[in-house]
UniProtKB/TrEMBL annotation, chains A, B:
<feature type="region of interest" description="Disordered">
    <location>
        <begin position="173"/>
        <end position="212"/>
    </location>
</feature>
<keyword id="KW-0805">Transcription regulation</keyword>
<feature type="region of interest" description="Disordered">
    <location>
        <begin position="66"/>
        <end position="110"/>
    </location>
</feature>
<keyword id="KW-0217">Developmental protein</keyword>
<keyword id="KW-0371">Homeobox</keyword>
<dbReference type="InterPro" id="IPR001356">
    <property type="entry name" value="HD"/>
</dbReference>
<feature type="compositionally biased region" description="Low complexity">
    <location>
        <begin position="201"/>
        <end position="212"/>
    </location>
</feature>
<protein>
    <recommendedName>
        <fullName>Homeobox domain-containing protein</fullName>
    </recommendedName>
</protein>
<dbReference type="GO" id="GO:0005634">
    <property type="term" value="C:nucleus"/>
</dbReference>
<dbReference type="Pfam" id="PF00046">
    <property type="entry name" value="Homeodomain"/>
</dbReference>
<dbReference type="GO" id="GO:0003700">
    <property type="term" value="F:DNA-binding transcription factor activity"/>
</dbReference>
<keyword id="KW-0539">Nucleus</keyword>
<dbReference type="GO" id="GO:0099402">
    <property type="term" value="P:plant organ development"/>
</dbReference>
<keyword id="KW-0238">DNA-binding</keyword>
<dbReference type="InterPro" id="IPR009057">
    <property type="entry name" value="Homeodomain-like_sf"/>
</dbReference>
<feature type="DNA-binding region" description="Homeobox">
    <location>
        <begin position="4"/>
        <end position="68"/>
    </location>
</feature>
<keyword id="KW-0804">Transcription</keyword>
DNA sequence: GCAAATTAATGATTTATTCAAG
DNA sequence: CTTGAATAAATCATTAATTTGC
């Protein structure tokens, strides 16, 4: 019996395919409600949570970029090697192995691209016998119209589309796995122990308690 | 009237003082429920959200570390300058301006330190006439005992103490500010436009759709 | 004294890096 | 070795301090 519930999400092929298609279509950094929607759609194909979707886009974006970068620096290095050894300095300071800021294809918006997407959208050869239409029209609705947020940002007004998050979990419906019987680890692994702080209550705050 | 509601959180002096004291006491990376608690405690002194607490610890930790790092590198440079110019090479590769991985005082736990804290804890000279005891015993309860999570992690089992988050906002009670009438900016500033993707549905996933 | 202009702090996001499961 | 998860670093952006000319 599956007594070790496997700690991390394992995407099903369908989920993966849809995510990749969304990425190809331009989705890079979906915001909270978009993630919510994507999650519920993908949950049709298997267990999934919002954070999985979030992390997936983060990682995929980063690693695509990384792939590109490696490819470019490799090219550069080959060019460098094919040059006379004189011109080999001129770096030496700054980017020694990673090319810190290259103009790479990034997301250009917090929102989905509005441009017309490939209309065939995953309908090429029907890789799965799953009711692909199910996830499909939902996704399409995501991209074209049905956003009803943008005025429903409840608490603050700042949309805070991403970045941090927790507090209340979102979907206690999908997963129902019990926590692994960890032994209440107070000092997980890197117990540097001695606290050794260096902070100082430097200055009292600036803006006094105005209701703003 | 305050028609421009100010987009970002401005901590009150009390909030700031409490946060700094918690930091000094060893709190570095509180997890979701801890942030929840801290937030509700601090909300006594003014409007605040969970993400504010999260960001505060992130930033404070990072900037303390940065301060230390700068101090150290400055020392190093001075030492370097007071040396004969022979020994000036020996870096040149790796950390050229930031000392990428120094053994700095970091958080040593996801949880609060259990060690005995200064028992006076903010009770030195009563900087504020606020009922300081209010936030105080609450904080103390945070540090010593009253965690009832660790078994209440609802959805997945992974505590996922931090990192990302959104979906459902947590405290719609504190803030009640309307969203600033932003003009629905679809392409914020850096409209790189062309999408230029480079992705490839590289490989189908590994684990098939097991319910796990 | 006081605003406009500049600079410094710091709240909020994004990106890079690291860890660890499989 | 791939990749989900998490953390740290870098960056952006806004607000407060501070300076400067009047």
């Amino acid at each position: 019996m599956p007594q070790v519930p496997s700690t991390r999400w394992c995407p099903t092929p369908e989920q993966l395919m849809i995510l990749e298609e969304m990425y190809r279509t331009g989705v890079r950094t979906p915001n909270a409600s978009q993630i919510q929607q994507i999650t519920s759609h993908l949950s049709y194909y298997g267990k999934i949570e919002g954070k999985n979707v979030f992390y997936w886009f983060q990682n995929h974006k980063a690693r695509e970029r990384q792939k590109l970068r490696r490819r470019l620096t490799k090219q550069q290095q080959q060019q460098q090697q094919s040059m006379p050894p004189f011109s080999q300095h001129s770096f030496h300071f700054h980017n020694l192995e990673d090319g810190h800021s290259l103009p790479l294809p990034d997301d250009s918006s917090q929102l989905f691209y509005g441009h017309q997407m490939h209309p065939q959208f995953l309908q090429h050869e029907g890789g799965f016998q799953e009711p692909a239409s199910h996830g499909l029209d939902l996704l399409r609705r995501l991209e074209t119209g049905g956003n009803q947020e943008e005025a429903t940002s409840s608490s603050n007004g700042s949309t805070w589309p991403c970045g941090c998050e927790w507090m209340t979990l979102m979907d206690p419906s999908f997963g129902e796995r019990r926590p692994p019987p960890k032994t209440l680890e107070l000092f997980p692994t890197t117990s540097t122990g001695g606290l050794k702080d260096e902070c100082s209550i430097s200055k009292s705050s600036s803006c006094s308690a105005s209701t703003n």
